[in-house]
Design a protein that fits this description.
The chain has 363 residues and is α+β, with helices and mostly antiparallel strands. 33% of the residues lie in helices and 23% in strands. The structure holds (3R)-3-hydroxy-3-methyl-5-(phosphonooxy)pentanoic acid.
Amino acid sequence: MTEKDFIPEEGLKYPSSGKVAWKAPSNIALVKYWGKHPDQIPANPSISFTLDASATTTSVAFEKLDQPAERFSFEFLFEGKPKEDFIPKIEVFFERIVCYLPFLKQFHFIIDSANSFPHSSGIASSASGMAALSLCLLEIEKRANPATKEAYFQQKASFLARLGSGSACRSISGNLIQWGKTPSIAQSSDLYGILYPFEVHQTFKNYQDTILLVHKGKKAVSSTVGHGLMKGHPFAAPRFQQAHENLERLQSIFTSGDLEAFITIVESEALTLHAMMMTSQPYFILMAANTLEIIQRIWQFRKSSNTPICFTLDAGANVHVLYPESEKERCIQFIQDELVAYCENGHYICDRNGIGAQPIVAT
Ligand code: PMV
């Protein structure tokens, strides 16, 4: 597939008004995407678990304009209330996708979005938010073209979501999603995420992710700035190469269920992401003191109890604690006994691997 394949045929007949709604989950990367080229092309491949509980629900009401808009005509509501700060981001997104959804200038839209996780929990909502919005907009195209095949719909939704926020392309379908061209996966693409095409051991099904909210404020470095730091970074080339290698190494690990090897790659990826930020110009430390306390305690518990529990991080201080479903009881007990004390106001979110975005009956 190339970009051109996502331009719809001309002459589609759109309904004059209607409402669509989708719920899309967040995702947590195991091999991290960090660094990009223009048009949201990743500098390295990545792979993520699709999450379940952390999600955005978005509805889009649409009504045909008498005259096509010069720019775009829309309102944005967050949890039912107008939210001006999101408007420029959505305008940039619409600008990027209008050639793939040409109807965007012909309608007025009312976009209403809500997150399942608390506002400013330090959890990025851009992946789930952009995925949910992309699915709603594509659903409108589908109403004009009901013969759209499911596989194409999923691929184009991921393609559009990528243009909103790179990692959002991994929030459309479920379980394990890979994004970014890499030699060990023939079907891989820089343009959209794909379902991981190889065998995955039972132990990785329904994997648990307890998200420890160490710092609930806004992130110190936005991901746009963060990706930019990889330009001219002295370690960029070996880092990008390492991501390809880690993906290739994960192939036999996913098949065999080798949790020790899995943990080594996942934790190394998290620390490498942070190492890149510590060694860029300007440099940043995005972990907090409590992030390190949590990591140390996870390591101690893993060693003393022989439990396959590990951590990963995104570009902030919060910690994602990962473990197989079979270890749930033991791990939750450990988290409550030893880790919750390091969370802001004791807050954490129990999440798990999920099945991907779902349509909602719009009311
Ligand atoms: O999608 P963005 O531009 O917000 O970048 C996300 C980057 C990380 O979350 C740090 C890693 C990843 O692969 O999700």
